[in-house]
Specification:
single chain, 4 helices, Alpha-Beta Plaits, alpha+beta
């Protein structure tokens, strides 16, 4: 089944945190990744009192159920050292499930497609890069990106 991941980090070596999470997704058999976006530098969202984020998206295939996949990405976050913080606060790594096949789930534990996907330029830019014709909720990622605020969302340049 096709799966989309959104990844973000704004602590430590941000791009390396994303690369490590992607490596673990494949190494642990969560998904076989077929497309990985560039890493983007993005301003914080929600809680603005923190540093810029590195963000990326990946698409692949998985045999896991939605809740198995959710538990497995949360384990990756914990194993990498993510500590609980305030909502939308700084984090070493964040791995979101953006979509899983045609599953439509809306409960307190999991919402698919991701409920904030269409409001987040930092997700739409990398997702549209690797899957512009992907349609979720009847909207292509290309069209969603055209209507999104991508101010200050730019490819990561090593400093």
């Amino acid at each position: 089944m096709r799966v989309g991941f959104g990844l973000g980090s704004n602590l430590g070596d941000k791009p390396q945190n994303i690369r490590e999470a992607l490596r673990l997704i494949e190494a642990r058999g969560l998904a076989r990744l077929e497309a990985i976006s560039r890493i983007y530098r993005t301003p914080p969202w929600g809680d603005l009192d923190q540093g810029d984020f590195a963000n990326a998206c990946a698409i692949g295939d998985t045999a896991l159920t939605p809740y198995e996949l959710l538990a497995a990405v949360k384990k990756i976050e914990a194993d990498m050292g993510r500590a609980p913080t305030r909502r939308w606060g700084p984090r070493l790594i964040d791995v979101d499930l953006l979509f899983l096949g045609d599953h439509a789930i809306d409960d307190p534990e999991l919402t698919l497609p991701h409920k904030e996907l269409f409001r987040r330029g930092f997700v739409l830019a990398p997702l549209a890069e690797i899957a512009p014709d992907l349609e979720l909720d009847g909207l292509s990622m290309r069209a969603a990106l055209a209507g999104a605020d991508v101010t200050d969302v730019r490819p990561w340049a090593d400093e």
